[in-house]
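Private note to self, pasted from the team thread so I don't lose it. Backbone tokens:
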């Protein structure tokens, strides 16, 4: 897997050269030579990786390690040289003159280093012939591949006739997929099953394929295993043979096919299918190209024929049929996991001895609902003695045993190998993030950018490219989406535990990073994740990332980060209760780009030496006044700072107007803002948070005038302390570029006409606003509004308001509505045509609300209803008097607002009964032309 590392370094050298050509021009030829040779080496690394898998040859592994080490060394040498020259450039003219001989000496030294690196790369490159490593450009017919890979494909090769007696939890999925295939439609239609490797896509497809309804419906059926390295001619021949009638001579068919061209084979296949109602399963299809090739030979004969495909990639499923939503297979529930585990570990009596239950469930937890992992672990324990000590030994080695198990390793590796080089590097960095926690996309974004993993395409923003990369990993089912924003962008995601273990294993092979190095040396690892106290390290290489989580001991005040091992640190994130002080040595981390502090730290002040970090792009602090960190007035020196996140607490007025590259300004007291007269310099500022404190003599008109000068400003948050009030004035209407507005704190009564709001406002969030419910009739006139979040927005009066009424055709453009902690409203009423385009409705903690609005049934575009922490009486009505209002909604979520399942305590039986009743009622009410079971009720 060294291709990822070498690709990463080659791209980094290109980036360094492009940005620092003025410093590198004297060593240009050498740097270009190193870069070009590394790019050439990439052509041979895939074959080297395959030979490692095939032969496990130590010499091959050493060869790959040497390439990786020399690539990293080249990057280190150039970065250190650039820093030395940049440091001299910042000095006065006389100091520059004095240090000119040192500059020449630096050039001489780096020139010698680069010559040495280039010679070493050539030496390694020439040695590849001794190992028989060759250039691999692609895949397809006529191309060779390793014996081991062929064997693994044969082992994984699927067949619909191999019975699986231990199927668990598939009945509901089988019914849903069967209903899609049996839907009345004469055209050739496609159904697809997608999900991560090992989740049971093939098992589900096999169960569907063998259902009596399916056998009776289709005249002809065929099962085709496509695989990652399909061969076009072979696929057509195999399909023709499967379609042959029992009385036909298969040997004659083979002889005839061998005489035909590809076009002739395609014609032969079409003739066999043109007059029949057929079902063809295309199992394990990886690319849209493979799909296009296969489907062009299949006739659309108006006989209600069907294709069923399985894939790890959402892109393939959507390409095959954009009109039929792919059926996404999720992991097994706790109960289903335990049932499958018992079938595999105790096949005779399906009972686990009481003394083994706890350790068995601990082992099962690591499998995280993945059927393949559960099957492997159950089979492993089936062959062990039924003794607690024996099972505990398995538990201790669980991570390494599971990931290194031949079948699981191959399944996971296939998805990794299929990634392009830039995504391989991004995927490896996912292992840096905290185990068992959701991955916040914003944090991941800054880490990827800090490490130079995001390659800008023309004028496209780096943040947009990050989202493209993230979407591709999600589309390949290598990341699970946890939370989605109102605009449907991903807010947080999670890496399956086994994929994370695989990620870490591969990262260690790449000398990429280490987790919890036990004692004195980082060896050659480049990134470090820390769950224990930081030691003083001596290292051959330089650490690029240091992330500390949950360490109870003091991290030596970070004095050790000034050692040579840490001089090229790019990412430093600390979320440790043991750390109280940040040492001034942080100013020596000249390469640092991302510096983050979590809420668990007890750090109260940033050192002034942070101003020395000229490459710093992101400072990430907690977004809360109660966890605030004192910030010295030196940030104006950070010319490359792009994001200043969190609450900014400073005793003196900050010179923020000098931060010309700033995009995000977290939350800053408003008087810091108003005392800067040169705010128009901040031409790139897109997001601003302002806190209005007691004692501020706020002039809202003046504030709006200053904000209106920021032409890039898109998002604004205004917050007031308790006891104060935000007064909406006409000045807000000047903010024509603002599309997102959040108002936190007491809000003065809204004028009858909504002209006080920014004219292009799309997203509005009101928090703790103390408004009267009738204010909704002013907000509903905001014609551009697509997202509205009302969080404790209405005041609790002596007598409850009878209703919150949305007028006829109100909120004509609204797509997303969250009503959260609306305590003063008993009923929601919708006028005719109100919220006609609404796609998502969230109702959280509205304890006085008695029932769903009657006109909910008229919201035909509603795709998701989310109900969390509502009274028992409200939930009871969902399965009784309100049931008819839910039939048209595809996705219904009933549960606790918290995503941390450990904090969620609710009556499981009651929730499952609600789910069952809504589903049954939904099926009863569906017309024959619709898809049964379309309503998905998730009681997460």
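Design output:
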């Amino acid at each position: 897997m060294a291709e990822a590392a070498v690709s990463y370094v080659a791209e980094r050298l290109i980036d360094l050269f492009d940005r620092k050509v003025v410093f590198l021009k004297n060593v240009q030829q050498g740097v270009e030579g190193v870069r070009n040779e590394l790019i050439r080496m990439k052509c041979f690394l895939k074959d080297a990786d395959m030979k490692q898998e095939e032969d496990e040859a130590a010499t091959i592994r050493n060869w790959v390690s040497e390439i990786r080490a020399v690539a990293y060394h080249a990057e280190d040498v150039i970065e250190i040289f650039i820093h030395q020259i940049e440091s001299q450039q910042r000095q006065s003219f006389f100091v520059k003159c004095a240090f000119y001989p040192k500059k020449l000496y630096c050039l001489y030294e780096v020139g010698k280093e680069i010559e040495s690196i280039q010679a070493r790369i050539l030496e390694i490159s020439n040695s590849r012939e001794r190992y028989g490593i060759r250039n691999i450009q692609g895949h397809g017919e006529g191309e060779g591949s390793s014996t081991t890979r062929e064997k693994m494909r044969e082992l994984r090769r699927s067949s619909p006739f191999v019975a699986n007696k231990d199927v668990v939890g598939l009945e509901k999925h089988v019914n849903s997929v069967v209903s899609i295939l049996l839907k009345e439609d004469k055209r050739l239609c496609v159904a697809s099953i997608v999900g991560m490797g090992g989740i049971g896509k093939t098992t589900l497809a096999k169960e569907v394929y063998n259902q009596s309804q399916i056998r009776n419906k289709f005249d002809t059926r065929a099962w085709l295993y496509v695989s990652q390295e399909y061969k076009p001619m072979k696929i057509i021949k195999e399909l023709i043979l499967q379609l042959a009638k029992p009385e036909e001579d298969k040997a004659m068919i083979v002889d005839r096919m061998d005489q035909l061209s590809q076009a002739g084979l395609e014609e032969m296949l079409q003739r066999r299918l043109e007059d029949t109602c057929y079902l063809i399963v295309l199992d394990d299809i990886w690319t849209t190209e493979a799909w296009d090739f296969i489907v062009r030979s299949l006739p659309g004969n108006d006989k209600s024929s069907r294709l069923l495909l399985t894939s790890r990639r959402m892109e393939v499923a959507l390409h095959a049929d954009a009109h039929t939503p792919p059926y996404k297979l999720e992991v097994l529930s706790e109960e289903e996991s335990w049932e499958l585990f018992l079938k595999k570990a105790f096949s005779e009596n399906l009972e686990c001895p009481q003394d083994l239950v706890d350790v068995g469930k601990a082992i099962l937890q690591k499998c995280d609902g993945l059927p393949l992992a559960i099957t492997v672990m159950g089979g492993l324990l089936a062959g062990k003695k039924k003794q607690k000590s024996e099972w505990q030994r398995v538990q201790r080695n669980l991570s390494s045993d599971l990931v290194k198990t031949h079948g699981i390793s191959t399944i996971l590796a296939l998805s990794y190998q299929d990634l392009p080089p830039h995504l391989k590097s991004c995927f490896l960095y996912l292992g840096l993030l905290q185990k068992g926690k959701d991955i916040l996309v914003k944090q991941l974004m800054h880490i990827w950018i800090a490490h130079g993993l995001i390659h800008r395409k023309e004028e496209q923003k780096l943040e947009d490219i990050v989202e493209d990369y993230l979407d591709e990993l999600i589309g390949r089912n290598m990341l699970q989406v946890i939370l989605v924003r109102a605009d449907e962008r991903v807010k947080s995601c999670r890496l399956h535990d086994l994929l994370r273990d695989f990620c870490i294993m591969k990262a260690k092979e790449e000398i990429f990073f280490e987790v919890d190095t036990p004692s004195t040396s980082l060896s050659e690892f480049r990134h470090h994740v820390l769950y224990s106290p930081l030691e003083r390290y001596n290292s051959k290489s330089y650490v690029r990332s240091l992330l500390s989580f949950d360490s109870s001991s003091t991290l030596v005040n970070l004095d050790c980060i000034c050692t040579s091992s840490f001089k090229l640190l790019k990412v430093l994130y600390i979320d440790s209760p043991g750390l109280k002080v940040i040492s001034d040595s942080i100013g020596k981390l000249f390469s640092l780009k991302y510096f983050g502090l979590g809420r668990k730290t007890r750090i109260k002040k940033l050192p002034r030496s942070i101003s020395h970090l000229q490459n710093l792009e992101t400072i990430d602090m907690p977004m809360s006044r109660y966890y605030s960190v004192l910030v010295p007035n030196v940030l104006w020196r950070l010319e490359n700072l792009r994001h200043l996140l969190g609450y900014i607490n400073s005793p003196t007025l900050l010179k923020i107007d000098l931060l010309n590259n700033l995009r995000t300004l977290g939350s800053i007291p408003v008087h810091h803002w108003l005392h800067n007269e040169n705010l128009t310099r901040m031409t790139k500022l897109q997001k601003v948070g302002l806190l209005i404190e007691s004692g501020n003599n706020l002039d809202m008109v003046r504030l709006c005038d200053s904000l209106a000068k920021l032409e890039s400003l898109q998002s604004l948050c205004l917050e007031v302390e308790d006891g104060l009030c935000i007064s909406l004035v006409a000045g807000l209407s000047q903010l024509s570029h603002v599309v997102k507005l959040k108002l936190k704190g007491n809000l003065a009564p809204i004028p009858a006409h909504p002209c006080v709001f920014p004219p292009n406002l799309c997203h509005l969030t009101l928090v703790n606003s103390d408004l009267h419910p009738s204010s909704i009739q002013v907000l509903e006139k905001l014609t551009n509004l697509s997202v509205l979040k009302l969080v404790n927005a209405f005041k609790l009066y002596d007598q409850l308001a009878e209703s919150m009424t949305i007028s006829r055709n109100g909120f004509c453009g609204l797509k997303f509505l969250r009503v959260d902690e609306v305590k003063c409203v008993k009923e929601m009423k919708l006028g005719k045509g109100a919220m006609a385009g609404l796609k998502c409705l969230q109702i959280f903690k509205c304890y006085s609300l008695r029932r769903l609005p009657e006109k909910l049934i008229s919201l035909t575009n509603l795709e998701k209803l989310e109900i969390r922490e509502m009274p028992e009486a409200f939930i009871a009505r969902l399965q009784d008097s309100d049931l008819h209002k839910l039939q048209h909604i595809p996705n219904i979520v009933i549960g606790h607002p918290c995503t941390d399942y450990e904090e969620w305590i609710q009556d499981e039986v009651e929730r499952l009964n609600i789910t069952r009743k809504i589903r049954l009622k939904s099926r009863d009410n569906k017309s024959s032309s619709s898809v049964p079971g379309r309503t998905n009720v998730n009681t997460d």
